[in-house]
Specification:
The protein is α+β, with helices and mostly antiparallel strands and 123 residues long. It has one domain. 38% of the residues lie in helices and 28% in strands. It has helices at residues 3-21, 27-40, 86-99; strands spanning 45-50, 53-55, 58-60, 65-70, 74-79, 103-108, 118-122. Strands 1-4-5-6-7 form a five-stranded mixed beta sheet, with helices on both faces. Helix 1 (3-21) packs across helix 2 (27-40). The longest helix has 19 residues, at 3-21.
């Protein structure tokens, strides 16, 4: 399955979660529900995956965690904020770089229409 195919499935399932729950909940609630939907759809998904930093010859665990990693290829960073900022974009770009991933989805559930809260991020 390609990164684009995975992203398409993730977006569809995220929209289902948003339609059921609406905006206004904590990020952790959306993460758990989307995790459940992804697993139920038969996708391999890791939740809160640790992302160490490689510096010279050492790996440093600084507490960075991906919200979701789908099929070992697509990073999903979830937010429940008034609006996405450059800091949120920088965060997912850093995860893509650290993990050498090509595609990420930055999804803000705190919007009326989830379509308006999704950003595809390419490394």
């Amino acid at each position: 399955m390609t990164e684009n195919e995975i992203a398409t499935k993730v977006i569809g399932l995220a929209i289902e979660v948003h339609k059921a729950l609406g905006p206004g909940l904590l990020e952790s609630a959306y993460r758990e529900c989307l995790f459940y939907k992804l697993k139920k759809a038969g996708l391999q998904v890791e939740k809160e995956k640790h992302m160490p930093i490689a510096f010279e010859e050492v790996k440093i665990d600084c507490g960075y965690r991906l919200d979701l990693l789908v099929e070992g290829k697509v990073v999903i960073e979830l937010k429940a904020v008034e609006q996405l900022t450059d800091v949120h974009l920088a965060q997912i770009l850093t995860y893509l770089k650290l993990g050498k991933f090509k595609l990420g989805l930055l999804i803000n559930f705190n919007v009326k229409r989830l379509k308006d809260g999704i950003k595809r991020v390419i490394n």
